[in-house]
Amino acid sequence: MPASQILPIELYFWQTPNGYKISILLEELGVPYTVRFVNIGKGEQFKPEFLAISPNNRMPAIVDPEGPDGKPISIFESAAIMIYLGEKFDRFYGKTARERVVVNEWLIWQVANVGPVFGHNNHFRRYAREEAPYAVKRFGDETHRLYRVLNERLQGRDYVAGEYSIADMALLGWIRNWQNRDVDIGEFPNVEKWHHRLAARPAVQRGLALRAPADVNLATDEEARKVLFGQR
Ligand SMILES: N[C@@H](CCC(=O)N[C@@H](CS)C(=O)NCC(=O)O)C(=O)O
Prior knowledge:
- By secondary structure, the chain is an alpha+beta fold.
- It has 9 helices and 4 strands; from the N terminus they run βαβαββααααααα.
- The longest helix is centred in the middle third of the chain and has 31 residues.
- The protein is globular and about 55 Å long.
- The mean pLDDT is 95.
- The chain binds glutathione.
- The site of glutathione (GSH) has 13 residues, from helix 4.
C-alpha cells in the first residue's frame, strides 16, 4: 500500500535544473515538505552539516523523517531521491518491473548524460576564463546530439518512458532552456510538444516557481565563479 506522509520531507534546494527535479516531484506527489535553501553561489554546500547529508557538496538532497524503518533517512543525488520517492509513494515510477526498467534507463540517461554535458557546455561557453574552442564545440555538438536522441525517443510518444514519470521530471529543468544552449528547438518538434505538455501541468508550474526568499543574499556572478569553480 502506498505510504502516507505526516511529517514534512526536508528538501535541500537551490534554484537550478537539478533542484527543480525534486520540487516538481514533491508538488506532483502533493506530500508535505519544507525547503532549506542551500545558497550554492555563497558556498553553503560546504557547511559540515550539509556535507553530512550530501558528501559531494551538491544539492538537491532530502531528509525524510519517516524513512523505511520509521526512522529519518537522508538521501543525496537527484536520481536516488526520485527513485526513493517514486517507490515510497508508488507513483510516477512505472507499475511493473519492466516499466521501472524503462523509467530507470531514461532517468539515468538524464543524470549521466544530459546533466553533465549541458553543465560543461554552459561552463565552457559562459564561465571559462580561457578560450576553449575545442571544449565549446565538443559539448555543443554533444548537447545537440542529446536533443536529437530525445526527439527520436519522443516520436509517437507523449512521455519518455511510457506514462508521465520521474524521468520526464528529471529532464524538464535541463531541456526547457534551449535558448541558453544555442539549440534551435525548431529542429526538435517532438521535444517542443513534450515541453508544452509538461509545462501545462500545475504541479510542474509550482515546482518551477520555487525561489529563495527575497531576503536571501544572492551571489554575484563573480562570487559564484570563485565558489563553484575556484577561479580567482
Ligand atoms: N548528479 C547530481 C548533480 C547535482 C549538481 O550538480 N548540483 C549543483 C547545482 S545544479 C550543485 O549543487 N553545485 C554546487 C557545487 O558544485 O559546489 C544530482 O543529480 O543530484
